[in-house]
Design a protein that fits this description.
Elements lengths: L2 E6 L3 H12 L4 E7 L2 H11 L3 E4 L8 H7 L7 E6 L4 H9 L4 E4 L4 H12 L4 E2 L1 H11 L17 H11 L4 H8 L3 H15 L4 H11 L7
Parallel strand pairs: 1-2, 1-3, 3-4, 4-5, 5-6
Length: about 220
């Protein structure tokens, strides 16, 4: 089954661009694109999409209010895609139940990855936003509150996690460490299992909490 998506953004060029990117993927289907928050709620009620791509600043209802109104179990996964990365927006969106937060200058691959992650209940936040927030939330004395992995991380796994915690994508990590993309994915899967983490954001949070992100190789 294809992942069904509704796009809500008041800029026609943005809606057209997102639709082209997503519809180029064999596992994603765009059911509708709409221009404001009221239309987003109506489209969700009509189409019942798996994922709602939602701008923050829109006429009639903004994206944060739409997110709030769609709270509950029978709702689409929401990915906020916006020009504005103000911290209060990020916190409000994620606390309101959004599954992701991307900037509009994110790569097409990141947009597709965010939709796929949301569809399976995972989350993805733009790397630059993730790094900034996790730095702010990291404890002043790293290590005290960090969970203990079920097995020690290997040195290469630690290298991968450091890169992840600094906002790198899998492809960027592969280039930085001179390994294949599949090797990076394998290391991250191993780390996720050792930490019992739900997603890469939790892995990055652990790296900052434990102090690993601040160390050098």
């Amino acid at each position: 089954m294809a992942i069904s998506v509704v796009i809500a953004d008041d800029q026609e060029m943005v809606r057209t661009g997102f639709r082209m990117i997503l519809e180029s993927q064999p596992d994603i289907e765009v059911l509708a694109d709409v221009v404001d928050g009221e239309a987003a709620l109506a489209a969700v009620a009509e189409h019942r999409p798996d994922v709602l791509l939602l701008d923050i600043r829109m006429p009639r209802l903004d994206g944060l209010e739409v997110t709030r109104r769609l709270s509950g179990s029978d709702r689409p996964r929401i990915v906020i895609v916006t020009t504005f990365d103000l911290d209060e927006y990020v916190h409000a969106a994620l606390h309101g139940g959004a599954s992701g937060f991307l900037l509009k200058d994110a790569s097409p691959a990141m947009l597709v990855e965010a939709v796929r992650a949301a569809a399976v209940g995972d989350s993805l936040v733009s790397p630059a936003i993730t790094v900034r927030l996790l730095r702010e939330l990291a404890p002043k004395t790293p290590g005290a509150q960090a969970r203990r992995p079920s097995e020690p991380l290997t040195e290469r796994e630690r290298d991968v996690v450091r890169c992840l915690a600094r906002g790198m994508t899998n492809a960027e990590i592969a280039g930085e460490l001179y390994v294949s993309l599949s090797t990076v994915k394998t290391h991250l899967a191993n780390v996720q299992a050792k930490l019992d983490a739900r997603n890469r954001v939790e892995i990055a949070a652990w790296a900052w909490e434990s102090g690993l992100a601040a160390t050098t190789t």
